[in-house]
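WARN no homologs supplied; continuing
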Amino acid sequence: MSRSEHIYHRMIVWLVFLILALPLLATLLYALATEWGATILPEGFTLKWMTQLWSDPRFLIALWHSLLICFGALLFSLVLVLPTMFVIAYYFPKLDAVMNVLILLPFAVPPVVSSVGLLQLYSAPPLMLTGTPWILIGCYFTIALPFIYRAISNNMQAINMRELIDAAHLLGASTWQAALLVVLPNLRKGAFIAVLLSFSFLIGEFVFANMLVGTSYETLQVYLYNVRNASGHFSSALVVSYFFVVLLVTWLANALNRERG
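OK structure emitted
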């Protein structure tokens, strides 16, 4: 590739990036604007709305709730899914086709329909979970399951897990020692990808959070819904902050992944 072609391709990439970033940039400008009416650009800029948002205890609690539920569901998913996937991949490989169908079932039923059924099941004894974070962790587990299963399954196929375990057997390791000391470290990148994909999806989930918990355990998306009739500048500041929280978590995860690599 010649230098001119390389420069041309980079210009195309940056142009596409700028086009995709325009809605976010416009939202950021509105969040920082004092007034923005009939003019092309805002009349002035202020940090009033950002300061008002980040000094609101209700917003900070909602953000904490969202992070706690998302990471709790993802931790539960990894602890449950990783051993299950290892057993299926090593001992019962024919069950992989069945699992590929089962993991898609949560997407076969619309969230509104699922929420109505869960409200009927868990609004009365013996398991009164409606209005608690536990029911959201269970729901988010089912949502994250397809992302986690597919990402880790692809990683298992890429590292040729069976040959790694056989090689560990030759060196005197048991099957579970090989799984913990050889296979698991090689699945780190797949697990990170699965967690990032799931987190970016879960933190934006609204239907389950609103119908099953609502203001009893207010999450970020429910908070955004409840303040939607407030100032448009305030709502824009919330949307921009939400984006940067996801970006920060993604950056931290990638940085940790590079350090461990």
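The chain has a mean pLDDT of 84.
OK
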